[in-house]
Specification:
Elements lengths: L3 E3 L3 E4 L18 E4 L4 E11 L2 E10 L1 E3 L5 E4 L1 H25 L5 E6 L4 E6 L6 H16 L4 E7 H5 L14 E7 L3 E4 L14 E10 L2 E8 L3
Antiparallel strand pairs: 1-6, 2-5, 3-4, 3-7, 4-5, 8-9, 9-14, 10-11, 11-12, 13-14
Helix pairs in contact: 1-2
């Protein structure tokens, strides 16, 4: 346990409460700033030390930080919003892939940040240009539909009755969060999302490739990306 960190130091800071999202379920942790009258901490990443204990990877830009200090927190809103766009589009893309390629498509990993979404899924052959175009078209039609999204927290037994998609490799507790894109998709998810699909702006697939036998990878982006 470090009692004091000074300007120029890199340090993990833990608070009693935080508005920062910690890396989970493939979504990267928030960035931002903590400030008080004498100190500025630049947050490069947020991660889970334990289930309810978040660590903030900080660079001490000014002053010093010591145990017991109080700070005001500011999440990098631009990065948070871009990440939310790329996370929400991952749900739309997952559904579109199943429509175009078949029900065998299942997630085998993901990574979402402010720049892009990376999605690994079960499929045995490269996608054709026509299939890529079709997936893009399905997702962009949902964006133009301006469909509302809804997040609900409920017992897992109740959530399963909604036919929400459970993601491979994820561990679920007794209480879960379900994200629904009205009339299109429903998935278990604890990440940040847009309130309606129009906020995504547009969707573009950047690449499609193989990462292992029977596993393909798509990278895509939304909004300003």
């Amino acid at each position: 346990l470090v009692k004091v960190a000074e300007a120029g130091d890199e340090v993990v800071v833990v608070f009693d409460r935080t508005p920062f999202y910690a890396e989970s379920g493939g979504q990267m942790g928030d960035k931002g700033t903590f400030k008080n009258k004498t100190t500025i901490l630049k947050v490069d990443d947020t991660f889970k030390i334990k289930a309810d204990v978040f660590g903030h990877m900080c660079y001490v830009a000014e002053g010093e930080v010591k145990v017991g200090d109080l700070f005001s927190a500011q999440v990098d809103e631009e990065n948070r919003e871009a990440t939310a766009r790329n996370h929400s589009v991952t749900h739309l893309m997952h559904k579109a892939l199943r429509e175009v390629l078949g029900a065998h498509v299942q997630q085998r990993g993901s990574m979402v940040n402010g720049d892009r979404t990376r999605f690994d899924f079960v499929h045995t052959s490269p996608m054709t240009r026509e299939q890529i175009n079709e997936v893009e078209d399905i997702v962009n039609k949902e964006i133009l539909r301006n469909a509302p999204t809804q997040t609900r927290v409920m017992p897992i037994d109740e959530a399963k009755k909604t036919n929400a998609v459970l993601l491979f490799g994820e561990k679920y507790g007794d209480i879960v969060r379900v994200v629904d894109v009205e009339g299109f998709s429903t998935e278990f998810c604890g990440g940040t999302h847009v309130s309606n699909t129009a906020e995504l702006g547009c969707f573009k697939i950047l690449s499609e490739s193989s990462v292992a036998a029977g596993i393909r990878r798509i990278e895509g982006t939304t909004g300003y990306g």
